[in-house]
Amino acid sequence: MIPEQLVFIDLETTGTNTTHDRVTEVGFCEVRNGTVVEEWSSLVNPGTTISPFIEQITGISTAMVADAPRFSEIADQLQTKLAGKVLVAHNARFDYGFLKSEFRRLEQTFQEQMLCTLKLSRALFPEQKKHSLDELIERHDLQAHNRHRALGDAQVLRAFFAKLCDELPSEALAKAIRSQLKQPSLPPHLNIAQLKRLPASPGVYFFYGENDTVLYIGKSVDIRSRVYSHFAGDHRAHKEMRLSQQVRRIDCVETAGEFGALLLEARLVKELTPVHNRQLRRTRDLYSIRLGKCVQDGSRPQVVVLKDLGGNELAGLHGLFRTRRQAETALREVILAHGLCNRVLGLEKGPGACFSFQIRKCRGACVGQEPLVLHEARLTAAFASMKVRSWPYPGAIGIRETSAANDRSEIHVFNHWCHLGTADSEERLWDILESQARLPFDLDGYKILTRFLETKVQQTDLIDLSPPVRADRLG
To answer: Residues 291-319: pLDDT tens digits?
Structure first.
């Protein structure tokens, strides 16, 4: 059954970011049982300037809204007019997100049912590739008298809906509306069937955009719930809003557990470089601090770059950093915190007292007030907590992970902190062990493994895979 009360609504804004941008115009057309009962619109002073780009699109300038009411002045009136009615908008998540944000700034809750004409068009005309408002205007021969103004676009939506009522079987239209109103709020280019196919088990999921471009890779112990959570809050976070507007397809790879999902996510983000992933990107070089020996004065810390470093070459290193600046900052902070001498450490040139001693931040090793042997001991202690861990096993190890959620069992193979691969069969495990290709050291893999070994692994989860590997070790 088609709802009796529909409010066709449109907003104009200063931009697309619900967090920072503001509403500049609201317009709606209320229909009851097919008859227009009210048309209403108002410019809104956003409290900021409107860019020339937005002005060119909408025709709304900063001068036009200078004397218009703020959103706070029309909020109560708008709440009253919209309460309890089904709101209809094109790409409804955009308009709904801005309305919720504006009301949230006033510490008010806005919660109404939304019907999206973009999604409605996709459901009713699946053979068509494009469903923008301009496409609908041309395809259905609709009159648009005031395009890109709030009331004008709302009137176009009303005309489009009226045409659907006239030209389509009522049951087909009612079914499409019922399907949309009862399902969770989804991005305009997805349908509920895609999400229902996602498993409620551990793994990695992929968001694809136009031309199957990988937009985002994430991981979870419950893929379906995690994907839903992305879209539940897209009106709050600009990143989630942008993602929901761009996503066209979702896929996933199941794993046996969270550990495997973390490893797979870290690897695939580096390989595929999704546009919305900032963390876990491949780092060209890594940097560390090495305490090199000087025969005359003792240890001297030095920032070193680790190109194509193997996991068996970490001895004597302190800290792992993605940039030289991070390493140098850490070095300065340790020296300052422990009152070490920059001159003795070779980081400051010239005779006599170092600068830190003059400001009472050095204990005087540079002028003989602190014995060099004591300074050396304090240096070693200062960097002890940063020491990169040596590989504690005689060879390769496997970490077995099983899941009741999807009845999977996997063995993750490591050697010298490098993840050599994941085996879901004994044949695959032997292939990994036989090849044992020397892989470049990966900082994220190192962090994932060390954290797991420190907090979650039990002895029964570890398998000694150093040669010779006996069949009884595999269980």
So the answer is: 877 645 567 888 888 765 555 567 778 98
